[in-house]
TrEMBL record:
InterPro entries: Met_g_lyase_put, PyrdxlP-dep_Trfase, PyrdxlP-dep_Trfase_major
Organism per entry: Ruminococcoides intestinale
SUPFAM superfamilies: PLP-dependent transferases
Name the UniProt record assigns to this protein: Methionine gamma-lyase family protein
Pfam families (alphabetical): Met_gamma_lyase
Lineage of source species: Bacteria, Bacillati, Bacillota, Clostridia, Eubacteriales
Length: 419
């Protein structure tokens, strides 16, 4: 550790943390290998070839690379079909296209995991007064509250689904800026079983952001009908420079494609320009990179638990995404943590993160991300709204060694301020 000034207490605690979580790290190695082999098989079944790596222009008719990429993602996600495009500008955009693709005036969308993430609320019409929201099109939003401890209220969920018979049952896998547990595939499966038992015709939609490749089981194989996410998170492998995906049942993906382009053309048009090569490479690396991010999260949980902080998930818990929550207790420590992560970055390490207003967020947010891709959440980053309970949400790391360094620098910043 001679390259960086790390507090001796953190070095000693990190040695204990590595010993504490060695079995969990080995478990993640196994998941990485499984999903990497699955990804290679997906490439082979899609007959990916060198010519697919180049893009098209104009209308993008007969773009074989675009079609092969859809097949790759469909296979690895256990989907009937997938829509993978560089012109999804964010995960929120992909989710919005999915919502508008299948919901119609008079339909009800029921969120069974409480209040959705900040940035999707304006698209639904929950917050703000923006023209073009679901609310503008007379699509009703309903929500099942979580239990006081943040867990799912399965009885109330069953009752609400049975009573409302919603067109869509909406599940958010990740916790967002809340302290509720992230959903593992087992909880998602239970929600799907409840939904199908009480309203078989309801479409089960999953916001899968941060949850791809974290286990051997994908949500579409346990009852989810469609899901969406961002390529600058797990599935882009840190290489995709932008984009998103929608995957699921073929007829639902087709409806979303009609929304993204035009009714009648759907997936048949859309120039890929020069994006194909990076999107294919990102997919190829995604299982390994996601595993490295998981290892970083596990290490951070173990280290900060040793240092006396509450963490969620615990280092040995089952995980539903790559996000690690660390309860720091006050705004100053949150900012110091983000400064430490930033100081361990390869890009913009000299920058000092400061809280600021962010579009789509209620509170000021402090963010650390020395990333090769702006806003990438699969590269090591940390962010938090400056509000109670003063926790930080950390995610990503293209490789575990860099992630471990960033976590240790963050811990050093906090410990030295406590002197």
């Amino acid at each position: 550790m001679s390259f960086f000034d790390i507090d001796e207490r953190v070095i000693k605690a990190s040695e204990k943390a590595m010993e504490l979580c060695k079995d969990k790290l080995a478990e993640i190695d196994d998941i990485q290998e499984y999903n990497q082999q699955k990804m290679i098989k997906a490439f082979q079944l899609a007959d990916v070839r060198e010519s697919h790596l180049w893009g098209s222009t104009g209308y993008g008719y007969d773009d074989a690379g675009r079609e092969a990429l859809d097949k790759v993602y469909a296979y690895v996600f256990d989907a009937e079909d997938a829509l993978v495009r560089h012109n999804f500008v964010s995960g929120t955009h992909a989710l919005t296209v999915a919502l508008f693709g299948v919901l119609r005036p008079g339909d009800t969308m029921l969120s069974v995991t409480g209040m959705p993430y900040d940035t999707i609320r304006s698209a639904i019409g929950i917050e703000g007064d923006y023209p073009g929201s679901l609310k503008d099109f007379s699509i009703k939003f309903e929500m099942t509250e979580l239990n006081p401890d943040g867990t799912l209220d399965y009885d109330k969920i069953a009752s609400d689904i049975a009573e409302k018979k919603p067109k869509m049952v909406y599940i958010q896998r990740s916790r967002g800026y809340s302290t509720r547990p992230t959903l593992t595939w087992r909880e998602i499966k239970k929600l799907c079983e409840i939904s199908k038992a009480n309203s078989p015709e309801s479409i089960i939609m999953l916001d899968n952001c941060y949850g791809e490749f974290i286990d051997k089981v994908e949500p579409l194989s346990v009852g989810v009908d469609m899901m969406a996410g961002s390529l600058i998170k797990n599935p882009g492998g840190g290489i995709a420079p932008t984009g998103g995906y929608i995957a699921g049942k073929k007829e639902l993906v087709e409806m979303c494609a009609y929304r993204l382009t035009t009714p009648g053309t759907g997936k048949e048009i859309g120039a890929t320009l020069n994006a194909n090569r990076e999107l294919f490479m990102g997919a190829y690396h995604a299982p390994h990179v996601t595993g490295e991010a998981l290892k970083t999260a596990v290490f951070a949980s173990a280290l900060f638990e040793i240092l006396g902080y509450e963490t969620s998930p615990k280092y040995n818990d089952a995980r539903g995404d790559i996000i690690q929550l660390i309860m720091l207790g006050n705004a100053e420590k949150v900012c110091r943590f983000c400064e430490g992560v930033q100081s361990g970055s390869a890009v913009d390490s000299f920058v000092s993160p400061i809280p600021s207003d962010m579009p789509g967020y209620e509170s000021q947010v402090v963010m650390a991300a020395g990333a090769f891709t702006l806003g990438s959440s699969i590269e090591l980053s940390a962010d938090a709204p400056l509000r109670e309970p003063y926790a930080v949400w950390m995610q990503g790391s293209l490789n575990f060694h860099s992630g471990k360094l960033g976590v240790m620098l963050a811990a050093s910043k906090i410990l030295r301020d406590e002197k």
